[in-house]
Amino acid sequence: MGMSSRRTRLAVCAVLAGGLFTALTPAAVATPVPAAPAAVADDPVPGHEGMPDDGFENEPEGEQDDLAGPDGSASRLAPSGVLPAPVPGRAGDFRLVAGSSLTGLVDDLDAALPKQGLTELMEQANRPAGWEGDCGSTGIYGPDLAVNHRICWKSDDATSTEWIPQAITGVSDAQEDEDWGSSNAEPIAVAGYDDYNPNRSNYTAGRDNCVQESASDACNEKGIRVSFFNQATQMYRHVLLVWPYVNSKDHISFDALHAREGKCGSSVTASCAAQNGIHAGGMVWYGNYLYVADTANGMRVFDLRKIMDLNPDDDADVNDPTPDGLVSDVQDKKRVGRQSNVWYSYGYRYVMPQVATLKFSTAKNGGTTAGNQCYATGRPKASFISLDRTDTDHLILGEYCNHNNGGDSTGRVGTYPMTALTAAVEGAAGTAASADLAYGLPTGAVFNGEDLWHKIQGATRYEGKWYFHRSNASSTGRLLQATPQTVGGTPQLVGNAKVLQSSVGPEDLYLAHGRGDGFAPQLYSLGEHAPSVCTGCKREMYSYNMSEVIGDFGS
What is the DSSP code string of 476-530? Predict the structure, then answer.
């Protein structure tokens, strides 16, 4: 449908009466109604420059991707052939500080747009997932662990070059009793990042090229979306994560999640290239908050009570009226935020705005991280996160490192009391959340001729032991186990000599504890690689019985 015909329909789809919108019946639509004037003036405000720099540092989109790394032709071990000792754990390096408050901006969005709860969103999930045998071949799985549950995506999501699944969390993280919404819904949430922006311009003058008729819907950098899966109905729904801001015309708006914006003139350099989206290598849903890892910065936080619905009547052909007197358009997949008195969302019905920021306060180490190098001291990378509920609730945060490219660390992990993180999210800017424990990853083992304890894509802690997902490009990855011990008077993680084959493209870890539903605890993960990436690759969510995992490791 053309834009002009949609605007004609828009003029007659709703009227403003007593401050409330009332939908017209088909009979009423037959009588032409003059278009109402814009509810709010839309003139530029002097001094406003459009979307301001959000201050987040940039990180390459290919971060945490073995397939984008070196081919290993260089020496894979230390020059002496001796693997390095574990780096020391320094909890102080992991300190997080709350950024500037976004509460006022989110409140303004809340007033401007209709709102939807997660329970209702789960009931309206619109995309069918495959379950168990529906997912076909089990070729992506290694022989050491029996897969218990398998969930596969709708065909376009399973093969998408634009959206790459990374992080996983669910209702067991959210609350102890696992009782969220309808019976047996037990939502699982997966985050994916936008990895494909064909023909997007890096130049300031070309920033609008993605809205041209010739441009692909994939052209824009859309950042991160979260897919909520309803286990009862085996359906799921995408929600676009967004960042609230005040636009150049002094109106509340939102954009996709990005790193620092560049403004190139006559040439494109790394310092002025167009925005990159964040990687979202890990995610934890705890209470009402969704914590999303931002590799270079820390974590971005979202509130599941603030999901905005841009298509409440579930009819994409008709632009819906919004509480602020404007309308929303979910058919135009090339625009986002408020533009010319219309709300857009890259075609997604639901958006969820960022409500808080937790940034690392430690300075970066001076070494390069261009090849996913990591260092023993200084600011860590927030490559993956998970939740440990087996004692006092703690968030686990750790680094993906490719030690083949240098650096002096194969990676570190740290833990935060959830009470400290919640207090920082809900506190004033500058409120700190300190880690109470940190370790360097174990060393001393070799896998396919290189250090085993790097290229970690996900980690969690369960009943005192640590579990790590180690990727292996387009071959099956490895599930690792480590135990805290004191060695030479220093607390450190000691790796289990037993190593288990996992799936191809293994990612984040999520533990469904089963305390609310009585099911056996499940260790969930997911594969990221589409079939186009490698022979035999496949995208699935899957789980192992945690009791089998523990037994196969021998403890």
Answer: EEEEEEEEEEEETTEEEEEE-S--EEEEESB---EEE--TTT-PPPEEEEEB---
Pairing of strands 350-360, 394-398: unpaired
The arrangement of strands across the sheet holding 342-345 comes to 320-321, 327-329, 342-345, 336-339
Give the span between the Cα atoms of 181 and 170, in whole angstroms.
13
Among 108, 154, 111, smallest CA distance to 131 is for 154
Residue 69 per-residue DSSP state: S
Q: Across residues 188-207, what is the average pLDDT?
A: 93
Quote the CA–CA distance of 232 and 119 in Å, as a whole number.
13
Burial of 228 (0-12, 13-18, 19+ CB in 10 A): buried
In this predicted structure, the answer to whether residue 325 has a pLDDT above a threshold of 80 is yes
The residue-averaged pLDDT of 520-544 equals: 94
| Structure tokens given for 57 | 């540092």
Supply 350's token pair: 């639901």
How far does CA 76 lie from the centroid of its chain? 31
Mean pLDDT of all residues in 348-375: 93
Give tens-digit pLDDT for 83-135: 667 888 999 999 999 999 999 999 999 999 999 999 999 999 999 999 999 99
Q: Which amino acid is at 119?
A: T
Strands 163-170 and 188-194: antiparallel
Q: What residues contact residue 118 under an 8 Å CB cut-off, 6+ apart?
A: 180, 181, 187, 228, 304, 307
pLDDT digits (tens, 9 = 90+) for 19-35: 333 333 333 333 343 34
Q: Using 50, 70 and 90 to split pLDDT, how confident is the model at 195?
A: very high
Burial annotation 497-514 (CB, 10 A radius, 16+ → b, else e):
eebbbbbbbbbbbbbbbe
The answer to whether the beta carbons of residues 196 and 220 sit under 8 Å apart is: no
* Contacts of 194 by beta carbon, 8 Å cutoff, 6+ apart: 162, 163, 221, 222, 223, 224, 225, 256, 277
Q: Which residue do the tokens 């000792």 mark? A: 85
Closest listed residue to residue 24, CA positions, set 276, 318, 364: 318
| Residues 343, 113: Cα–Cα separation, whole Å | 9
**What are the two backbone dihedrals, phi and then psi, of residue 348, each rounded to the nearest 5 degrees?**
-85, 140
Distance set, CA 478 to CA 65, 72, 323, 455 (Å): 15, 18, 51, 10
